[in-house]
């Protein structure tokens, strides 16, 4: 299976549409960050992430 990233929230999954926000996913993305504790993460706050998971840094 190929990893895909949501064009709306950047969540990485293998689905055609995002399971978290329902947005369309893309196979064209670059870099990723794994958020383990979104409440304490400065990066998660800057990216607007409100739940733990794998997120792409750039999605096309």
Mean pLDDT: 96
State the domain count.
Answer: 1
Tell me the distance between the termini: 19 Å
The succession of helices and strands, N to C, reads EEEEHE
- Can you summarize the main beta sheet? 3 strands, antiparallel
Determine and state the CATH class: Mainly Beta
Give short descriptive properties of this protein.
single chain; 60 residues; mainly beta; Rubrerythrin, domain 2; 3-stranded antiparallel sheet; two-stranded antiparallel sheet; 1 helix; globular
Structural account:
- The chain is globular and about 30 Å long.
- It has a single domain, classed as Rubrerythrin, domain 2, CATH 2.20.28.90.
- It contains one helix and five strands; from the N terminus they run E-E-E-E-H-E.
- Strand 1 (4-6) and strand 2 (12-13) form a beta hairpin.
- It is mainly beta.
- The strands form two sheets. Strands 2-1-3 form a three-stranded antiparallel sheet, with no helix packed on it. The chain has a two-stranded antiparallel sheet with strand order 4-5.
- The model has no long low-confidence stretch (mean pLDDT 96).
- The relative contact order is 0.30.
Brief characterization of the structure:
Helix content is 10%, strand content 35%. It is mostly beta strands.
């Amino acid at each position: 299976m190929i990893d895909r990233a949501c064009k709306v929230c950047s969540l990485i999954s293998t689905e055609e549409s995002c399971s978290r926000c329902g947005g369309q996913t893309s196979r064209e993305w670059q870099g990723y960050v794994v958020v383990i504790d979104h409440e304490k993460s400065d990066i998660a706050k800057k990216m607007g992430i409100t739940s733990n998971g794998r997120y792409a840094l750039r999605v096309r």
